[in-house]
Here is the input.
Amino acid sequence: MFTLSEENYLKAIYHLQTISRKGISTNSIAKKLKTKASSVTDMIKKLADKKVLVYKKYQGVTLTDLGNQIATGVIRKHRLWEVFLVDKLNFSWDEVHDVAEQLEHIKSPKLINELDAFLGFPKTDPHGDPIPDKDGEFQKIEKRLLSTIEPSQLGVCIGVKDSSSEFLKYLDKYQISLGQQIKVISKEPFDDSLTILIHDKEITISQKIANNIYIQS
Amino acid sequence: MFTLSEENYLKAIYHLQTISRKGISTNSIAKKLKTKASSVTDMIKKLADKKVLVYKKYQGVTLTDLGNQIATGVIRKHRLWEVFLVDKLNFSWDEVHDVAEQLEHIKSPKLINELDAFLGFPKTDPHGDPIPDKDGEFQKIEKRLLSTIEPSQLGVCIGVKDSSSEFLKYLDKYQISLGQQIKVISKEPFDDSLTILIHDKEITISQKIANNIYIQS
DNA sequence: TTAATTTTTTAGATAAGACTAAAAATATTT
DNA sequence: AAATATTTTTAGTCTTATCTAAAAAATTAA
Ligand SMILES: [Mn+2]
Ligand SMILES: [Mn+2]
Ligand SMILES: [Mn+2]
Ligand SMILES: [Mn+2]
Here is the structure.
């Protein structure tokens, strides 16, 4: 059995691995979890003892199959709870994360599988992220950042890279939501800002914004 | 803000107060929480500092208004989650308690109030216990133990005193459930066992069983 | 009203998880 | 290759929530 803290470490390492696929450094884990490197060293030793990751001093860590399994299990719970909050309890997509951070640690296989069924086996969460099934499997969604799309091309918003409340509220303000069609009108060479067509209206967004919106094209 | 452990102490003390209304002893808290008296002494000092209970050495403790408020808040969450599990996720009444023990500590006022609305503002949980409303108010349900009912009288099962899985499964076996009409046929003077009529069938139950079923008559 | 028993508190220890400061190893510059 | 900078680990401390053993207070019995 794994503690709340251990589960958070595993989830953080899992997410870091999807970006870099090298050994994950102590410092990067510390940064992600807003803790200190020395705390991370302590914890990864414990996790190595529990066979959920491989650790060699100064070499960073890699999750084992067991470690990946536990991490995806926690992510499955996090995302299913997010769907529940939005679909059933009138939460908006910028309100769900903190509550899901708590709910993801509830231990009950029956609970999570019944919740999955109750929600109709959703494939993605309110931010467009894929939900692992009971066996931890999920298909990778084909997506690119809006910032990589060339002028005159168009696509559909299917996800966000940043799911902070601030960013999501920005998107709400401009009515940018999942499933929304977006056409890139032009790109400003000086600052890479984009003028896009959405809801039949032209708006200009910074490159930082465009860098956090996923598009299927 | 209160920790999981502090919340569990407050809940335990609250429950003990509904039975005895005297100062609650260190030992009784220890027994209820399956911990040691010395641990209880440590914790109640901390809780007294936080103004949720009044503590004088060797005198036991009493919850303050704030303490009662926090305790009923946790109980509200526990019972609402139990309703959710039974009504929406196909749990049976003997499966919900352990999961609710975890869920009751999730912190989010919006979550619990939306859940309440989603469930249709239920007044009682799957074991017949009343659910406090947003302000901590709930009406006391008029009830007596089945063991106190005289032969030839009849009533409706509206709650259970023991909600352990073992006891609830026993009730399931004999199809004794909430809302069920029960008529007491006779009482055996030797061991106070009862012969009752339920579902048009006569069954005999021990005094221990009858002592854990609440009846409205 | 003493004496024995039970309850409660205190003292000291432990484990988890975090922190700071310093040492050791690795990586980057000159 | 040596010097410097960065990263990682170690050592020691702190807090929370436990525990055991012993001391103190309160209760019950003789
Ligand atoms: Mn989230
Ligand atoms: Mn999400
Ligand atoms: Mn319960
Ligand atoms: Mn209940």
The first strand of chain B starts at residue 53 and ends at 55.
